[in-house]
Design brief:
Oligomer: single chain
Shape: globular
Order of helices and strands: EEHHEEE
Number of helices: 2
Radius of gyration: 15 Å
Strand content: 35-45%
Strand order of the largest sheet: 2-1-5
Structural class: alpha+beta
Helix content: 10-25%
Distance between the termini: 20 Å
Length: about 100
């Protein structure tokens, strides 16, 4: 399972936070994306809104930008941008398992 330990500057002050699983995955993607942010279209994940909700509950500032898209299912989608300054303390990726 992926784990991510960070130090974040938030409205609540400086916090040491540890995440695992999909919350760690989502935060890792947000950190790597920087100002560009992430959308469920360019960074597919089953519950982006849920991950963002969980991260915000810990005090992280994540902006939601509503964007329009075309195509056969035109409408809008969210772009999530991490605004809290964070420093990654450690990041571990899950071990890959052989198929078969």
């Amino acid at each position: 399972m992926q784990t991510l330990k960070i130090k974040a500057e938030t409205a609540l002050g400086s916090l040491d936070l540890t995440y695992s699983g999909r919350n760690a995955w989502a935060l890792s993607k947000l950190i790597d994306a920087g100002e560009k942010g992430c959308t469920p279209i360019d960074t597919p994940g089953p519950r982006w809104s849920g991950y963002v909700h969980n991260l915000r509950a810990d005090g992280l500032d994540i902006e939601t930008v509503t964007e329009r898209h075309g195509g056969p299912y035109k409408g809008t989608h969210a772009r999530y941008v991490l605004r809290s300054p964070v420093m990654v303390i450690s990041r571990s990726m899950p071990e890959s398992k052989p198929h078969g």
